[in-house]
Amino acid sequence: MLVGKTPWDVGPLIRYDKMEQFGRWTAGAYYGLPDERFRVLFNYEFFLKDDSGHRDDRLYVWAQVRF
Questions:
Q1: Of 6, 53, 59, 63, which alpha carbon lies 20 to 30 A from 35's?
Q2: DSSP string covering 5-53, please?
Q3: How far apart are the first and last CA of the chain?
Q4: What global pTM score does this model have?
Q5: CB 45 within 8 A of CB 26
Q6: Which run of H or of E encompasses 30?
Q7: What is the Cα–Cα distance from 1 to 11, expressed in whole angstroms?
Q8: With 0-12 CB in 10 A as exposed, 13-18 as middle and 19+ as buried, what is 2?
Q9: Are 4 and 12 in contact (CB under 8 A)?
Q10: Which domains does the chain possess?
């Protein structure tokens, strides 16, 4: 996993996973640092073909609000 840090509270990320049966790339971005009241993470997973055929890609949006 590679995560970029910028002077602002946003940054890119990229990850590659290889497991026994399949592999996937994940590209995304984050906004907010762990101590902030609001954070959000966007991820898009690109699945590679494996023995069972092509898998569907996925989009994840994760948000956290602290009170």
A1: 59
A2: --SSSEEEEEEEEE-SS-EEEEEEEEES-TTSSEEEEEEEEEEPPBTTB
A3: 30
A4: 0.73
A5: yes
A6: strand 23-31
A7: 13
A8: exposed
A9: yes
A10: 2-65 (3.30.1300)
